[in-house]
Design brief:
Spore Coat Polysaccharide Biosynthesis Protein SpsA, Chain A; alpha/beta; globular; about 270 residues; 8-stranded mixed β-sheet
């Protein structure tokens, strides 16, 4: 039996100061490939990724966090990934926890795994702002009630997916902004996939990206909007293709975004 192809995808934006540190923490004995998608950064993110020898896709214009992930997953699937881990390139999440995150997927027990910052009770110690902690707890509680789940952190930026999940959950219908992550969770549950979580400590520091209060407020309302649309779908009041397995698949060929980015094969510096 061949070894599963485990790939890390890193959505990146102005991550030149943190990308190398993030990459250094990835357990390369388990990971087959690392893909960086640069969302038209204004710094040297592309050059750093190239120096590290990483396959790098660079958007020709800034398309948004969700659009970045769409490029990530298209590329990983096209390269034959069996498991895909999404890790932010800003070193806020700890990639050394990847083995814990992917183990239930490799064992066939889960289809999507979330890297929770909350389960170990040290989120505030890691520097999470109190307003962000409170809003996370509030939104996660509401979402758990809607989904019938008992997860601790539904707003984490480190996740892992099985190939089966990414081939059938219609993420290609998602929005291009931050609420993409929320949509993935609701779609996964709606399509009958199994979700789990593993503890992944996070750290908040000047170089780590963190959206401000205004953006977070918009994200919070967008999350409630997804929750409401999911409930209407679940109750049969207004069915949505977004929550149906494989919906709109014909509209997203593997090269569907190819005109939006350039591909660079990394050339590691000796």
């Amino acid at each position: 039996m061949s070894k599963p192809r485990v790939m890390v995808v890193m959505p990146a934006y102005n991550a030149s100061r943190t990308l190398e540190r993030t990459y250094a923490d990835i357990p390369l004995d388990l990971v087959t490939d690392v893909i960086v998608v640069d969302d038209a950064s204004h710094d040297d993110t592309k050059e750093v990724a190239n120096r590290l020898g990483l396959r790098t896709l660079v958007h020709r214009e800034n398309l948004g966090y969700g659009a970045n992930q769409k490029t990530c997953y298209r590329e990983a699937l096209a390269l034959g990934a069996d498991v895909v881990i999404m890790v932010h390139a800003d070193h806020q999440y700890d990639p050394t926890r990847i083995p814990d995150l992917i183990a239930p997927i490799l064992a066939g027990e889960k289809d999507m795994m979330l890297g929770t910052r909350i389960a170990d009770g040290k989120a505030l110690e890691g520097g999470m702002p109190i307003w962000k902690f409170v809003s996370n707890r509030g939104l996660t509680t509401i979402e758990n009630l809607a989904l019938g789940q008992h997860l601790t952190d539904l707003h984490t930026g480190m996740r892992a997916y099985s190939r089966e999940f990414l081939e059938n959950v219609p993420w290609w219908l998602n929005q291009d902004g931050f609420v993409f992550d929320t949509e993935m969770i609701f779609e996964g549950v709606a399509c009958g996939y199994r979700l789990g979580e593993a503890s992944v400590p996070s750290r908040y520091f000047d170089e780590a990206s963190s959206v401000n209060f205004k953006v977070s407020l918009r994200y919070g309302f967008a999350t409630l909007g997804v929750t409401w649309r999911y409930l209407l779908h679940k109750w049969g009041i207004r069915r949505r293709a977004q929550f149906m397995r494989g919906a709109g698949q014909a509209a997203h060929p593997p090269t569907g975004l190819a005109e939006r980015y350039d591909v660079y094969e990394g050339s590691p510096t000796p």
